[in-house]
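Changelog-adjacent note: as of this version, every example in the card shows the full chain rather than a window. The one below runs 297 residues end to end.
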Amino acid sequence: MTQQNSFLGRRNVRRAALVAMVGMTAGLGGCISQADYDRVLVENRTLTNRNQELRASLDECEAARSALGGSRQSGDQTISQLTAQLNEKNSLLDDYESRMRQLEQQMQGLSFGPLDAATDAALADLASRYSNLLSYDSAQGMLRFNSDLTFGSGSDVVSAGAKQTLNSLASILKGSAASQYDLVIVGHTDSQRIGATTAQKHPTNMHLSCHRAISVRRELASLGISESKIQAAGWGDQRPLVPNTANGNTPANRRVEIYLGRSVGGAGGGSPAGGSGSAGVGLDRETPPDRQPAITK
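Full-length structure tokens:
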């Protein structure tokens, strides 16, 4: 742009010089030929037009430079925002991983396996009465709920049918035989991606599985099971029962499992890592979650 200004200046000087030369010629000779006059006039007009063109080009360059500066500033702001969001999510991930390590250590204090005969028989009967909703693994002392029947699609609200089943389960757990057991509730999902609307509240399948487990915990607590005896956690899509399909939509992997275990003071045996793939996790029984979940898929 500096070169353009310089060029314009030289053109203006040249035009002035031509006009002056014409004036000098007129003063010396009294007149100039018509041809010389026309030639100078044409050149003057040409230079004037060129000057206007260059000024317009200069204005366009200035406008482009300003626009480019605004775009760069906007781009820098976007990068800063994305970086802040990434840092926030990394912090949340570190926090979740830390909690999972703590929970796995807590699980060392529980022993999972065959239950007493009375409780075992009661849970087997429960599973036979609600066979469309849940199954019972006697070897692990574990009930497995089908998430598609326990919750509505994209919801952590326990369905009416599941509430009836949990009510029957609570009656068993409050009996004298089953009162010796602590509960570990573990949520699982398939690998189907969370939708954009859901991600505003629950950005990952880990959130989905944890919050559904917490909902079952809350329901059992409302039915009279002591919260101090119930842990809840989730594995997201990390412990599938069967290989996930290409699009991730795999109903068999969407489930909530409830384990009954005895407290053994740190000398624990098995854990929810057993054959179903639910590796030993639980949630701190002393510290409730700091927010209420609402899960959508």
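Structural remarks: The first strand starts at residue 110 and ends at 112.
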